[in-house]
Amino acid sequence: MTQPYVKQTIENHIAYIEFFHPAHNSLPGDVLAELAQTITDAGNNDEVKVLVLKSGGDRTFCAGASFKELIQINDSETGMKFFSGFANVINAMRKCPKFVIGRIQGKTVGGGVGLASATDYCMASKFASIKLSELNVGIGPFVVGPAVERKIGLSAMSQIAIDANSFYSADWAKNKGLFTGVYESKEALDYAVKTLAENLCSYNPEAMKEMKKVFWTGTENWDEMLLERAKISGRLVLSDFTKEALKGFK
């Protein structure tokens, strides 16, 4: 696989939505936009009862923002638009009237942790360590922070945001509430995801829709709040500190 993509496969009323990028599944703006739209469309598709969010490849679920695009940002408006990409995907999952299951097969960094946190039920392999690395380049997890905090709490989110150099194990993430289960292999993970999704398809869709509303109560302002957070990141990415730090990724 050499070309980035977002693809959807519907099987037994389950929409498997998969994204991929050859740079460790890092996400540029066009892939983020397509991912948000695909989630929204699946949520509106009467054939679909449950969504599964996954990524291609074996080693990395998502490496976060595309450093190639970050390096090219030269004004705050472009910066805000780029970081709004993650906000739009998070909000698409939040507003989707169906449960979104996360399938996290490998390491996930920065924005990827936000995507995992925005799923309704997240399952992982033992290789799925997590890291919020944004502070390393002078930004901070402003856009994904609310989703991460909602899942694991302010204390744990603050810990991994401040300790931006460290990966935290899948078991740590499970103990904090991000992952509901950690599996020994990708095959075991896929079986568990498929089993759960198929079970959910046998439940009352209206009941699940109402449950999801309850689960996300208190996030009604996220359309505006995450946009404001994107503005902060868009401004900070122009700082001398961040420009210098990003040179190391060229």
Features:
250 residues; alpha/beta; 2-enoyl-CoA Hydratase, Chain A, domain 1; 6-stranded mixed beta sheet; 3-stranded parallel beta sheet; 10 helices; 9 strands; 16% strand; globular
SSE topology:
Layout: E1 5-11, E2 14-20, H1 29-44, E3 50-55, E4 60-62, H2 67-72, H3 76-95, E5 100-104, E6 107-109, H4 111-118, E7 121-125, E8 130-131, H5 145-162, H6 170-176, E9 181-183, H7 186-200, H8 205-215, H9 222-236, H10 240-246
Parallel strand pairs: 2-3, 3-5, 4-6, 5-7, 6-8, 7-9
Antiparallel strand pairs: 1-2
Helix pairs in contact: 1-3, 3-4, 3-9, 4-5
Describe this entry's structure for a reader.
- By secondary structure, this protein is of the alpha/beta class.
- It has one domain (5-189): 2-enoyl-CoA Hydratase, Chain A, domain 1 (Alpha-Beta Complex).
- Helix content is 49%, strand content 16%.
- The protein has ten helices and nine strands.
- The chain has helices at 29-44, 67-72, 76-95, 111-118, 145-162, 170-176, 186-200, 205-215, 222-236, 240-246; strands at 5-11, 14-20, 50-55, 60-62, 100-104, 107-109, 121-125, 130-131, 181-183.
- The strands form two sheets. It has a six-stranded mixed β-sheet with strand order 1-2-3-5-7-9, sandwiched between helices. A three-stranded parallel β-sheet has the order 4-6-8.
- β2 (14-20), α1 (29-44) and β3 form a beta-alpha-beta unit.
- α3 packs parallel to α4 (111-118).
- It is globular, with a radius of gyration of 17 Å.
